[in-house]
Amino acid sequence: MSDLLGRLRERGWRLTSQRRVVAEVLDGEHVHLTADEVHARAVERLPEISRATVYNALGELVTLGEVVELSTDGRAKRYDPNARHPHHHLVCSRCGTIRDVHPTGDLMTGLAAEERFGFTVSKVEVTYRGLCPACAGQDA
Amino acid sequence: MSDLLGRLRERGWRLTSQRRVVAEVLDGEHVHLTADEVHARAVERLPEISRATVYNALGELVTLGEVVELSTDGRAKRYDPNARHPHHHLVCSRCGTIRDVHPTGDLMTGLAAEERFGFTVSKVEVTYRGLCPACAGQDA
DNA sequence: ATCCTACGATGGACGCAATCCAAGTCAAGA
DNA sequence: TCTTGACTTGGATTGCGTCCATCGTAGGAT
């Protein structure tokens, strides 16, 4: 994120206290909050902020390319602020913990031309699934 | 799917007319129906089948490993019957069309040990995104 | 062929995530 | 300071999925 607020202002984003708080909450590595979690943290700083506003701000940040939306389980979407440094995800199948990962190699070349069905392919998302150390520890 | 019903019977699956219809609807390549779409098609053959039953049957087929659940867009989950032949997906960003693809290369080796955060990684899902020929055709 | 019974089906109520909307509020340029 | 269009609000609404009490039935036993 670093100078997210500066970049947004340059793009003509009207800077309200609500938007500022949402952007501040979404800062750091391995941050993958749901909209409700973002709202809960935003409320700590700005008690009257509404859910609708959080949804609006998140949607705009996604459109602007500053945040990526993840749906790793069919439940609530999660918002990842690390959009400026492309990466993939490692997800615990039991507890849902998510880590950012940076696999090596060109993932794009694996898909042969005759397997593209005429699509113009523009990006690849990779999700590794398994058990995190804590969940692998507990038997069963 | 081929002899899905036979395999299910061997596993002690009680074969009801409802389950048979759900299994029949989920047959073929590049089939990625939502639960509601499965229900709609099932109703054509068995008018009184309920949505709850379709959800139950789909959930069981997923547990049995005969069908995989996809959430490519955060909207309704989709059900892919091709679970016995592992594959990945190519999704149109505009219309949502999904094709099965089989990329070459070992996707697992790309993830360095120090990038695994102690996880025991058991599978990898790859989603290619882009525009299908029809959507790329229309300008805008 | 018939009976039994445990497992499956039903459908309406419920819950969660997300979106919509009309009315009120405010950031930022003049 | 004023003005205005963009933003915020919260309650209603929608979409997707699950739950649950009741009814029905597949398939083994006789």
Automatic annotation (TrEMBL), chains A, B:
Alphabetical keyword list: DNA-binding, Metal-binding, Repressor, Transcription, Transcription regulation, Zinc
Binding site for Zn(2+): 92, 95, 132, 135
Co-factor(s): Zn(2+)
CDD domains, per database record: Fur_like
Alphabetical list of SUPFAM superfamilies matching this protein: Winged helix' DNA-binding domain
Keyword Metal-binding attached: yes
Bound cofactor: record note: Binds 1 zinc ion per subunit.
A Gene Ontology BP annotation from the UniProt entry: regulation of secondary metabolite biosynthetic process
Record-linked Gene3D superfamilies: 3.30.1490.190, Winged helix-like DNA-binding domain superfamily/Winged helix DNA-binding domain (1.10.10.10)
GO molecular function: DNA-binding transcription factor activity; transcription cis-regulatory region binding; zinc ion binding
Family statement drawn from the similarity comment of this UniProt entry: Belongs to the Fur family.
Protein name per its UniProtKB record: Fur family transcriptional regulator
Gene source species: Streptomyces roseus
